[in-house]
Structures are given as C-alpha cells and as structure tokens.
C-alpha cells in the first residue's frame, strides 16, 4: 500500500496569480497583484490564522538575532500571563518548550527550509498553534473589562474555552487584536471581502505592521 504524504501545512512561496480564480481576474485581484508579488498558502484547517501569524513573524525576524531574542523574551513573559489567567503550568509547559525550541532554531543565517520543515511537522506546528491560542485566551481574560464588551457568550471564560482555546476554531477580530497586543506584533490584513475593492486592516490600529496576511473566503494566507 502506498504511504500517504503528510499534509502541507505551510507551503513554499508561490506567485500571487496562483490565487486568481480565472484568466480575467476582477479589479480586486488586479489591485492585489499591484501591491503584492507572492503568496504563501496555509492549510485551511481552522488554525490558519495562528499558523500564518507565527510563520510570517518568525520569518520576518529570522535575520535579526536581536529581534529573535526580544521575541523569545516576550514568549517567556507570556507564560506568566498564561499562568495568571488560571492555566496550570503542567497544561502548557510542553507547548511553551516547543515554541522556545523553534525560536532557538531560527537564529540569523538559518535557511528558510529549516523553519518551513518545522512548521510542516504536524505535532510541532500544532503545538505552536495551541500555545498561541492559550496566549490569546489569557490576554482576553486578563483584560476582561475591555474585551467582555465584544464577545457573544454568557461570559468571557466560556467564550475563550469554546472559541479560542479549542483547536480548529477560526480566529475572529477580537482574538487577532488580543494576540497582536499580547506579543506586541503589528499585523496588516488585506481582506477580499469588500464588494468592489480590497479592505485593509492594521491591528492594532496605530501599529507598524511586521507581517501581511490575506483574508479570503474565511481563510488566511501570507502575502509578500
């Protein structure tokens, strides 16, 4: 019996035209092509935002040991935030260790394939996603006075457990803002959802974006 190939979670870079639905793309696609040249496709499994965010940011800072060290320090600090939200260390220590290990392997000068291979190892890649989900949940709960006004659930804790911490649940705008603020990373999202033109979101609003994501048909890919 032929052995099945493992699923591609994060693809190699492809030409932006690979996203176009036909030979005569709409004005939105032409606008997209005028602003970006390449796309990196992320598997559509409900975890695409977290996976895209993590890969894109690590790839952005991979050539700077200073930025990698600062990000590593922020991840270590985030563990205290996760614990302060009521999560037991034993429940997330393995995910934290995986995250720190991946950051360590991203030192400057390391080829892109190293990061790509790590993100296409299902166990490693999903562990990174799970930790980011916990960081997002913790930030929401630690800032409940603000975020409780923007979620539809009996309370924020129930919302986080069902909508944020669970794997394969899509990330909404509230979660994106929480993660961006928790890790101090600016995100530029280009949305295809506008009727006639692209819609641009900078999250948080006053941030300098460190990565660019494309949102289309409830899915996120990475733009270059």
Describe the structure in your own words.
The protein has 224 residues and is an alpha+beta fold. It has a single domain (26-223), classed as 3 helical TM bundles of succinate and fumarate reductases. It is 50% helix and 16% strand. It is built from 9 helices and 6 strands; from the N terminus they run βαβααααααααββββ. The protein has helices spanning 27-35, 48-61, 65-84, 89-104, 112-119, 122-142, 144-147, 156-164, 173-183; strands at residues 10-15, 38-42, 186-191, 199-203, 209-216, 219-223. It has a 6-stranded mixed sheet with strand order 1-2-6-5-3-4. Helix 3 packs across helix 6 (122-142). It is globular.
What's the topology here?
Blueprint: E1 10-15, H1 27-35, E2 38-42, H2 48-61, H3 65-84, H4 89-104, H5 112-119, H6 122-142, H7 144-147, H8 156-164, H9 173-183, E3 186-191, E4 199-203, E5 209-216, E6 219-223
Parallel strand pairs: 3-5
Antiparallel strand pairs: 1-2, 2-6, 3-4, 5-6
């Amino acid at each position: 019996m032929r052995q099945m190939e493992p699923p591609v979670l994060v693809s190699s870079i492809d030409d932006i035209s690979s996203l176009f639905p036909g030979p005569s793309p709409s004005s939105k696609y032409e606008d997209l092509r005028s602003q970006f040249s390449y796309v990196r496709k992320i598997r559509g499994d409900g975890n695409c935002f977290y996976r895209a965010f993590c890969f894109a940011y690590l790839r952005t800072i991979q050539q700077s040991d200073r930025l990698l060290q600062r990000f590593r320090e922020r991840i270590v600090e985030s563990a205290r935030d996760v614990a302060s939200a009521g999560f037991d260390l034993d429940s997330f220590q393995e995910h934290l260790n995986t995250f720190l290990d991946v950051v360590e392997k991203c030192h400057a000068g390391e080829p892109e394939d190293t990061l790509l291979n790590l993100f296409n190892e299902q166990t490693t890649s999903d562990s990174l996603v799970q930790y980011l989900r916990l960081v997002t949940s913790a930030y929401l709960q630690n800032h409940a006075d603000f975020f409780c006004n923007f979620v539809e659930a009996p309370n924020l804790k129930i919302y986080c457990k069902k909508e944020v911490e669970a794997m394969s649940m899509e990330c909404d705008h509230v979660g994106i803002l929480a993660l961006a603020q928790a890790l101090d990373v600016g995100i530029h999202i280009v949305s295809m959802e506008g009727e006639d033109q692209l819609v641009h979101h900078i999250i948080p609003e006053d941030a300098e974006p460190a990565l660019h994501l494309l949102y289309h048909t409830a899915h996120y890919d990475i733009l270059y």
